[in-house]
Design a protein that fits this description.
globular, Rossmann fold
Length: about 250
C-alpha cells in the first residue's frame, strides 16, 4: 500500500505586498480560497478592509504590518517567514501615484516617493525573499504594473508612469537573470478600487470608459484570476512578459 503522506502535495506559500485592499485583497482571497497559505502586508491596522479579511481567525492567513516605503520595515519581513522552508509565489502589488500633477509642477520629492513605493518596494522585497523563492520547485514572481506604463500618465501622472515602466523592465530583466523562477507582470487599466475613488474624478473615469472598447473599468477579481492563473502550472511557459488588462483601451 502506498504511503499517502509521501504523495501529499504541500500547500503553496504566497506573499502579497499591499494585500488589505483593492487588487491586493482580491489576490489574497483568491489564493486563500484555493487552499494556499498567504502572507500579506498592510500599512494601517485601523483599516476596515483588513477586518473583513479576518486574518486573526485563519491559520492560513498572516497579516504583517509594514510600511513598504521603509527599507528597515521591509527587511523585518523575513522574521515572519522563518518557519517556512520556501515561498512559491511573490506578488509585488503595493503601489501609489501619491498625487496627480503635471511634470512642470512636480518636484524631486514626489518623484522619489513614487519610485520608492512602486519600484524599490518590489526590488527590495524580491531581494529579501529570493532565497525562499529559490527553494520552491515552481517559484513565481508577479509584479503589478499599470496601463500608465505605456500611456505616459495622461498629462498628470508622468512620475507614476515612469515608475511603472521601470517595473516592466524589472520584470523582463529579472526573468532572464533568474531563469527557473518565472517573472510576470500584469498592467491593468482603471480598476474599481479605492485608488480610483481617491485619484480619479468622475470626469476622468467617464473619459476612460468612453475610450475603452469594452465600455467599463475592470474589477479586482478579474486581475486576481489572471494572477492566480499566471502563477500556476497551466502558465508554465509564461515568463518575462507584462500582460496588459485594458478592455481594449
Amino acid at each position: 500500500m502506498k504511503n499517502n503522506s509521501k504523495n501529499k502535495i504541500k500547500k503553496r506559500i504566497v506573499f502579497v505586498s499591499g494585500g488589505s485592499r483593492g487588487i491586493g485583497k482580491a489576490i489574497v482571497n483568491k489564493f486563500l480560497r484555493a487552499g494556499c497559505k498567504v502572507y500579506f502586508t498592510y500599512k494601517n491596522s485601523k483599516n476596515l478592509e483588513i477586518k473583513k479579511l479576518n486574518f486573526l481567525n485563519n491559520k492560513n492567513l498572516v497579516g504583517i504590518k509594514c510600511d513598504m516605503n521603509n527599507l528597515n520595515e521591509i527587511t523585518k519581513i523575513k522574521k515572519f517567514l522563518q518557519k517556512e522552508d520556501k515561498i512559491d509565489v511573490l506578488i509585488n502589488n503595493v503601489g501609489d501615484v501619491i498625487k496627480r500633477t503635471s511634470f512642470v509642477n512636480s518636484d524631486d520629492k514626489l518623484w522619489l516617493k513614487v519610485i520608492n513605493i512602486n519600484l524599490m518596494s518590489a526590488v527590495r522585497t524580491t531581494k529579501i525573499l529570493l532565497k525562499l523563492l529559490k527553494k520552491s520547485n515552481n517559484g513565481v514572481i508577479v509584479n503589478v504594473s499599470s496601463i500608465a506604463s505605456r500611456t505616459g500618465g495622461g498629462g498628470d501622472s508622468l512620475h507614476y508612469s515612469v515608475a511603472k515602466s521601470a517595473i516592466n523592465t524589472f520584470t523582463h530583466g529579472l526573468a532572464k537573470e533568474l531563469k527557473k523562477i518565472r517573472v510576470i507582470g500584469v498592467a491593468p487599466s482603471a480598476v474599481d478600487t479605492d485608488f480610483q475613488k481617491k485619484y480619479s474624478t468622475k470626469k476622468r473615469l467617464k473619459k476612460i470608459i468612453k475610450d475603452t472598447p469594452l465600455g467599463r473599468i475592470g474589477t479586482p477579481e478579474e486581475i486576481s484570476e489572471f494572477v492566480f492563473f499566471a502563477s500556476s502550472s497551466k502558465a508554465s511557459f509564461l515568463s518575462g512578459e507584462t500582460i496588459f488588462f485594458t478592455g481594449g483601451r
